[in-house]
Amino acid sequence: MHTIGEVAEMLGISAHTLRYYEKEQIIIPLRDSSGDRRYNESHLKWLQFVIKLKETQMPIAIIKQYASLFQEGEHTAPERLKLLENHKKAVEDQMNTLHAANEMLELKITAYRSFIGK
């Protein structure tokens, strides 16, 4: 079991973020006898997944929706699958946009280097 500070350090996020995720019911940590938050390996894996979703620009509202569906149980698997498929499509679209922008930048950089004589 890990404390909020340990988890924050392990995952490279703040304790404030962990408390926010709890407030938004994205994660529900365990509590020890004195009421302090405790996180197990399952929590860590879940938080790693949440962090990846945030890194790929999934809105908190959708992450909350996914978390709520997960907490409801296995019967929500089709809905969770749909959320992830939709997000994967958005990530792929974003990657295509970034790839096209990168190609344009490469052409412009090549043109400037040619102009400058580098």
TrEMBL record:
CDD domains: HTH_YyaN
Residues forming coiled coils: 81-108
Pfam families in alphabetical order: MerR_1
Residues of the HTH merR-type domain: 1-69
Keywords: Coiled coil, DNA-binding
Record carries keyword Coiled coil: yes
InterPro entries: DNA-bd_dom_put_sf, MerR-type_HTH_dom, MerR_fam
SMART domains: HTH_MERR
The keyword Metal-binding is assigned to this record: no
GO molecular function: DNA binding; DNA-binding transcription factor activity
Listed name of the protein: DNA-binding transcriptional regulator, MerR family
Organism for this UniProt entry: Paenibacillus polysaccharolyticus
